[in-house]
Amino acid sequence: MDVKKEDNDQDQTAQITLSSCPGTTPATPLSKNQLKKQRKHAEMLEMRKLRRLKERERQKAKRVEAKAKGLPLSVGPSRKELKRRQLMAINKQSSPDIISVAIDLDYDDLMHERDVAKCVKQCLRIYTINRRAAQPLRLHFTGIKTKGNIHECFKKNDGWENWHVDYHFDRTHSELFDKQKLVYLTCESDTILEKLLPGHTYVIGGLVDHNHLKGLCHQRATSAGLLTARLPLSEHVDMKTRSVLSTFHVFELLTRVAANQGWTQAILETIPQRKGAKAKNNSKDMKIVQTDQQENDKQMEIEQEKVEITDVAETDELGDKVITES
């Protein structure tokens, strides 16, 4: 009798599942749209691997073709050169005259998940721009909340802890730097940024809001008693669209100006072509400040005139110089 009772108890416990357990509701089946999204996501992950393989094959074919034609294997600087620049930048970071840039990431709770991913992606691009810059700036990421949305999004990138960036968790730029040498860049400011001052730190708001929170960065900066400034975009170029740039475009513009490039040319080479920017005729930068390339071109014209006047038979050598310097 006892044996039959134990068998019945075992049968009852075996029949109890998560769906039949008291106090639970049965799981609803996935809709057609949800199943379609899952299928598309799986296809996207599979296609991503194939695209990477095809891209590696294309790069390999380009290197083989360039080697056969005697062309340089890479257009940009090599990894060895990039590492050398980084080491030089690290050695200069202790200098009080270095120009620093801080990306203010203290907007974690004001962005949706998709906008947080875009913000971190821009930080990745900023790191790449600084790594490839002729004169890298000292880069800070401030206001990162520990285990916040931005922190968790950073963790999805392998090796992010090894970047040559100063990470500051739970500390804002106001707590880290001297307020007298701290300038927050906002398009609402009445002060025009004419030049970058050594020893100063320029703050860029890491906020992706699609213009829904307009003026928030400027409001926070003025409330904290910080100096503000705007980029001299309207003073140097005319644009068809709004003069609002993304975070990495602002950073790239600062790196160009820090490398002694004029504002006009730096703006034209940085902002996207869709903005339709054209240099102003009355731009001081175009009249006074000249880049090294412009000076070289002018010098080459003077040398060519001298050659034509004196009838010196060195046109081939002069042509070689023009090709190599252009």
UniProtKB/TrEMBL annotation:
Active-site residues from the entry: D209 (proton acceptor)
Q: What is its EC number?
A: 2.1.1.221
Annotated GO CC locations: nucleoplasm
For the region Disordered, give the residue spans: 1-39, 278-311
| Comp. bias (Basic and acidic residues) | 295-309
The cross-references to Gene3D superfamilies, in alphabetical order and at most eight, read: 3.40.1280.30
Q: Which UniProt keywords apply?
A: Methyltransferase, S-adenosyl-L-methionine, Transferase
Identify the domain of life.
Eukaryota
This protein's record includes keyword Transit peptide: no
Q: Which BP terms in the Gene Ontology apply to this protein?
A: tRNA N1-guanine methylation
Q: Where does S-adenosyl-L-methionine bind?
A: L185, G205, C217, L231
Question: Which reaction(s) does the protein catalyse, per the Swiss-Prot or TrEMBL entry?
Answer: guanosine(9) in tRNA + S-adenosyl-L-methionine = N(1)-methylguanosine(9) in tRNA + S-adenosyl-L-homocysteine + H(+)
The residue ranges flagged as biased composition, category Polar residues, are 11-33
Q: Which InterPro entries match?
A: MT_TRM10-typ (IPR028564), MT_TRM10-typ_sf (IPR038459), TRM10/TRM10A (IPR016653), tRNA_m1G_MeTrfase_euk (IPR007356)
Give GO terms: molecular function aspect only. tRNA (guanosine(9)-N1)-methyltransferase activity; tRNA binding
The protein's name is tRNA (guanine(9)-N(1))-methyltransferase
- List the source organism: Drosophila hydei
Q: What is the lineage of its organism?
A: Eukaryota, Metazoa, Ecdysozoa, Arthropoda, Hexapoda
